[in-house]
Amino acid sequence: MGSGTAAAMEAGGITLMSNNLNGVADAIELSRRTMRIIRQNLFWAFAYNTVGIPIAALGLLSPMLAAGAMAASSVSVVSNSLRLR
What is the model's pTM? Predict the structure, then answer.
């Protein structure tokens, strides 16, 4: 049986690994930035699908272009998420 540290780390939403309490402010800022980027990624994914699916369903978009646009959409989501570094 451990000292209870592992249980406390599991129970907490955030675990600071240093004695500096400025980490709390950094963690809150990081979580806000993360949520903002998640919302941006969801918006652009829904916008792409809202426009792309009807155009493809009408036969106005070739499957090759649709696949390329989907790949570009995925790359843009990943690139946007990498801004968190």
Answer: 0.73
Q: Does residue 35 sit in helix, strand or coil?
A: helix
CA distance 46 to 52: 10
DSSP secondary structure of 2-54: --SHHHHHHH-S----SS-THHHHHHHHHHHHHHHHHHHHHHHHHHHHHHHHH
CA-CA-CA-CA dihedral for 41, 43, 46, 50, to nearest 10: -140
**Per mean pLDDT, which of 1-5, 11-15, 40-44 is the most reliable?**
40-44
Tell me: the pLDDT tens digits for 42-77? 998 888 888 888 898 898 988 898 888 888 889 999
